Amino acid sequence: MKSHILWMVGATILGLVILVGFLRFNFIAALPVAISLACPLGMLGMMFAMGKSMNHSNKKEEDGDNSHELHAPMSIDDAQHSHMHH
Fold this sequence. Notes:
With 86 residues, the protein is an all-alpha fold. 78% of the residues lie in helices and 0% in strands. It contains three helices and no strands. The radius of gyration is 22 Å and the shape is elongated.
């Protein structure tokens, strides 16, 4: 819960910086817009951070033994291509 609140606060601040600093909105007008955008921006930030951490953990697994993992079946095109080269 604490990390969710931190993402929301960070997204609100980022929204304010963009609206006031770059788009020259009035702070009072920008505040409700930034608060409204905090949830979607925070969710995008969390998904981005989780995606990076999952990619990082997948790379660690690739360095080790993956013989226990299940793999997706080959498509028909892949099977035909593989069969032609053997």
